[in-house]
Amino acid sequence: MQIRRIACAFLKKWGVPDCAGSVALLSSELVTNALQHGRGAVSFRMSHGDSLLKLSVGSQGLVPDLAVKVVDGLAESGRGLMLVDTVADAWGVADGRVWCTLPSRPVRAA
Questions:
Q1: Which domain holds residue 51?
Q2: Which three-class secondary structure state does DSSP give residue 61?
Q3: pLDDT bracket for residue 101 (50, 70, 90)
Q4: Which residue stretches of the chain are H helix?
Q5: Number of domains in the chain
């Protein structure tokens, strides 16, 4: 998914590549969720503060009462928000967008 590459490129530009794996996973899970459960165009936002990285995804018709599901071990889908809940420090739904946060620690020059 191209969103993974875009998100990781911004992390490198911002000097916080230490969370690239988590951001790649979270961005693709949130965008996939919006594509599957929303309607129309999907918007992705990522912001970086002193110690916090925030990702958010929105789509028309995205269900505002998303919840982590318990799925059968053989199920082919349904684990996206469980992964988000496990990897992110926090997540939720606000203003028609699903968001999550991670701590960000800039890489210091040696």
A1: 2-103
A2: coil
A3: very high
A4: 2-14, 20-37, 80-87
A5: 1
Residues with Cβ within 8 Å of residue 14, at least 6 apart in sequence: 48, 104, 106
> Is residue 108 a part of any domain in this protein?
no
- 26 in a structural domain: yes
Rounded distance between C-alpha atoms, residue 9 and residue 21, angstroms: 12
Q: What is the CATH number of the domain that holds 14?
A: 3.30.565.10
- pLDDT tens for residues 14-70? 888 888 889 999 999 899 888 887 888 899 999 998 789 999 998 887 665 566 566
Q: Residue 55: which of 68, 43, 46 has the closest Cα?
A: 46
Instruction: Note whether residue 97 is domain-resident.
Output: yes
| Cβ neighbours for 19, distance < 8 A, ≥ 6 positions apart | 11, 53, 102, 103, 104
Q: State the DSSP code for 71.
A: -
Q: What does pTM read for this prediction?
A: 0.80
Which of 24, 55, 51, 52 lies closest to 42 in space, CA to CA?
Answer: 55
